[in-house]
Fold:
Amino acid sequence: MNTKLDSLTYYAATKKYDLRFPTLSEDIDADVVVIGGGFSGINTALELAEHGIRNIVVLEAKHLGYGGTGRNGGQIMAGIGHDLDAIAKHVGEDGLKEIFRISNLGASIIRDRIDKYGIDADFRNGYAYLGFNSRQEKTLREWEASFRAVDPETEIQLYTGQEVRKVVGSDVYGSALLHMGGGHVHSLNLLLGEAQALAGHGARIFENSPVLDVEYGDRVTVRTAMGSVRAPKMLWACNGFLNGLEPQIYRKTVNTYAFQLCTEPLPDELIERISPIRGAYSDIRPIIDYYRVTNENRLLFGSATALLDYIPGDLKAWNRSLMLKVFPYLKDVNIDLAWGGPLCCGANLFPQIGSLPQHPNVFYVQAYAGFGVTPSHIVCKVLAEGMTEGSARYDLLSSVPHVDIFAKDQLRAVMTTAGKAWNQLSGFWKGRR
Ligand SMILES: Cc1cc2nc3c(=O)[nH]c(=O)nc-3n(C[C@H](O)[C@H](O)[C@H](O)COP(=O)(O)OP(=O)(O)OC[C@H]3O[C@@H](n4cnc5c(N)ncnc54)[C@H](O)[C@@H]3O)c2cc1C
Structure:
């Protein structure tokens, strides 16, 4: 990993849980072994524990939240996947409706989890999707109707013209769809709170324990440098950090990158001007700017390169220039931190869950395409159903096929640039540009 991307994050600098887990140093047995200590691994394990499975082992290569889970914008958005039309032909009209219904569960799963286990994760409601032009305003009107149809109880309201300033303090937008069901969260504290809950169910978590080798069979054997775990079921939950250990799923994704900055703490009046709702935001372009305020009055601002796929030399300066296009009045504000990380994407930008064709006891979850805080909570709930008693919605989500991405290592930047170009172009007729 590029060292700039690995710089200190806002999340690591403000984490409230001092959890440390040992390195695996013996040979042990388990009912389920999970590889990867991000939202996917910990959430699926916690769901399994809530299904009554006690002997669960989670192996994390570095520390919990080392991956995207400890680097993201903390945005709790509606939905899973980017463009459900891309999967319509595989799941049919009814399947699509069911996926749209499932998609709406995410924020409530997070909120319930926080309440149930008393997790201290700065959860806050209030999300606005932002449009620059009339085409995007039309799209937001359509979204408003769709969101209301699945969630009639929640405050969902479109603002246009000068009214937009009631939601966000920027002159660049012409419309804002406020969705009070979404919001933002301190993702690392959420993960660590969930991990603490998981340990409370009796699961064993090991950090600094990279998996080096896996032997499949009725009982899978997972080996690290100093120990092993044998279990009848296993889960790959390494997302953009998989590094080729399981080629069948590795070749179905490719990484692109996103970058974040965090400002110094700002005066109350400035925060009130930026975000009267103290919420989270993203525009609806194919490559979004996304930002939110934090509990300590900082602004977190993130984005990805719009076309050419590259890692900017100076992440602070790169993100700052985008931030100033939206909020020019922040020109004298100091940028305290900047970091980045991989967004693991499949060709259809839809999350991938299932089990390996020849090994029905080996499960996987990956490829949230930069959009995993809420979706991982939904998808992993469904995955845990698939790993236990089975469910119609597991069958539905796991039925979506995912193509191999040819020469993903050799041609990564070329392919992600081509993917961005296609998304930018199709964004016009999808009403997102
Ligand atoms: C900069 C950035 C901004 C983002 N912003 C948002 C946002 O605002 N909203 C949103 O919804 N999503 C966002 N995302 C995406 C979201 O964070 C991810 O989709 C989500 O966290 C993925 O969780 P995960 O558990 O699948 O993967 P990860 O969190 O990446 O965890 C995978 C883990 O697997 C471990 N691992 C890998 N190989 C091995 C091995 N051999 N042995 C043991 N462990 C291994 C890794 O060390 C890592 O900890 C963002 C991502 C980035 C990078």
User: Anything to note?
Assistant: The chain has two domains: 1-13+20-123+185-253+346-402, 124-183+254-344+413-433. Residues 106 and 378 are 5 Å apart (CA to CA). The two ends are 32 Å apart (CA to CA).
